[in-house]
């Protein structure tokens, strides 16, 4: 259940606030109790300061636990946990306090400042009885890590910053979800799942299992696929500027017409993939390793017409003849990388 107001204060009175902690929040040192910080069991603070918490806290020179946040915004959140009332000093941005509450997932403050951010369900709801349908449900910031999630359809759901770490989401459909921005799918199983045409900017897929997962047309700017196992994964038409695929295993991935500007594939194992017509300006690849995947006698290249700048091309540490085998297309740095690509080059069935 969501804890706020009088309910929170009653729970605080029943707690034994004997375990004192010193916090250094953005340079301001404050004393509080473990009972206060863990009073909202759904919050990140409760997970950070629970007696059995796996979090390793950084400390300042005096031994106070250091939290690299703004004290002006953290103070109203802490006082809310202490007494169940939200008081914001004059001159302090309400939006800043809301962002602080969202960061630490203190839903009581979130619902007071912006009722739209209050989740409809909590982790406890899933533990007691995993809902069979999550269509149109808000799970903003809810931690579902390692839980059984029976629902497979998330159309209309708000999943911003929702934690799905280690969850089996095989064949789940996120198409039509309101938002996946900042969601965490680290170590999750997303085989045969559909995340096409969704907003998953900044989402985490580190070490996730992504066999035949679809990201067609998905907004993936800044997404993290580090160490992910991608097999037959479809990224066609996705906008993945600045995405990281470091140390990922990518087999038969489809990246046709994908915007990969500034993406990082350093250390990734890439086999039998297609980057035809992708925009890879500023992207990082281990070109010497990729050269071995191109048949020297073949006219076709998996990077045929992939867009690069002249500077990108010159920086590839291969001979001129070796670079020609990639059949890259050099365009201006400020050019529209997709302007002259026929729509027929982008289809779910196209392998080349």
| Arrangement of strands in the largest sheet | 4-5-6-7
What percent of residues adopt helix (DSSP H or I)? 10-25%
**Main sheet, how many strands, which sense, barrel?**
4 strands, parallel
Strand content: 5-15%
* Unreliable sequence segments: 1-7, 9-17, 342-352
Q: Helical segment tally?
A: 10
Order of helices and strands: HEEHHEHHHHEEEEHEHHE
SS elements, strand count: 9
The global form is elongated
**Terminal Cα span:** 51 Å
Backbone CA Rg: 24 Å
Global structural class: alpha/beta
Overall average pLDDT: 86
What do these coordinates show?
This protein has 352 residues and is an alpha/beta fold. It is built from ten helices and nine strands. It has helices at residues 5-14, 34-37, 44-49, 71-83, 94-103, 107-113, 123-128, 287-291, 310-315, 320-324; strands spanning 20-25, 28-33, 65-67, 209-211, 229-231, 249-251, 269-271, 307-308, 329-330. The strands form three sheets. A four-stranded parallel beta sheet has the order 4-5-6-7, with no helix packed on it. Strands 2-1-3 form a three-stranded mixed beta sheet. α1 (5-14) crosses α4 (71-83) and α4 (71-83) packs across α5 (94-103). The longest helix has 13 residues, at 71-83. The radius of gyration is 24 Å and the shape is elongated. Residues 1-7, 9-17 and 342-352 have low confidence and may be disordered.
């Amino acid at each position: 259940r969501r804890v706020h107001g009088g309910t929170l204060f009653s729970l605080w009175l029943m707690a034994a606030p004997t375990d004192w902690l010193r916090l250094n929040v953005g340079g301001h040192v404050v004393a509080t109790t473990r009972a206060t910080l863990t009073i909202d069991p759904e919050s990140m603070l409760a997970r950070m300061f629970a007696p059995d918490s796996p979090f390793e806290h950084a400390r300042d020179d005096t031994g106070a636990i250091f939290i690299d946040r703004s004290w002006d915004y953290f103070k109203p959140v802490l006082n809310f946990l202490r007494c169940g009332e939200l008081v914001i000093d004059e001159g302090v941005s309400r939006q800043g306090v809301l962002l602080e509450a969202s960061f630490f997932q203190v839903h009581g403050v979130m619902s007071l400042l912006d009722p739209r951010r209050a989740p409809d369900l909590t982790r406890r709801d899933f533990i007691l009885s995993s809902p069979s349908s999550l269509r149109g449900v808000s799970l903003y910031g809810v931690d579902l890590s390692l839980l059984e999630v029976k629902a497979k359809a998330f159309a209309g759901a708000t999943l911003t910053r929702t934690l799905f770490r280690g969850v089996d989401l095989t064949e789940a459909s996120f198409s039509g979800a309101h938002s996946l921005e900042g969601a965490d799918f680290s170590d999750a199983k997303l085989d045969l799942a559909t995340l096409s045409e969704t907003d998953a900017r900044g989402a985490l897929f580190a070490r996730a299992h992504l066999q035949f997962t679809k990201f067609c047309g998905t907004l993936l700017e800044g997404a993290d696929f580090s160490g992910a196992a991608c097999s037959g994964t479809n990224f066609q038409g996705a906008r993945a500027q600045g995405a990281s695929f470091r140390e990922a295993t990518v087999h038969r991935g489809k990246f046709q017409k994908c915007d990969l500007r500034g993406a990082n594939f350093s250390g990734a194992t890439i086999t039998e993939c297609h980057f035809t017509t992708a925009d890879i300006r500023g992207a990082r690849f281990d070109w010497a390793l990729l050269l071995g995947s191109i048949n020297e006698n073949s006219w076709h290249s998996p990077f045929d017409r992939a867009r690069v700048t002249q500077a990108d091309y010159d920086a590839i540490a291969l001979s001129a003849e070796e670079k020609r085998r990639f059949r890259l297309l050099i365009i201006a740095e400020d050019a529209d990388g997709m302007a002259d690509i026929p729509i027929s080059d982008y289809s779910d069935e196209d392998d080349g």
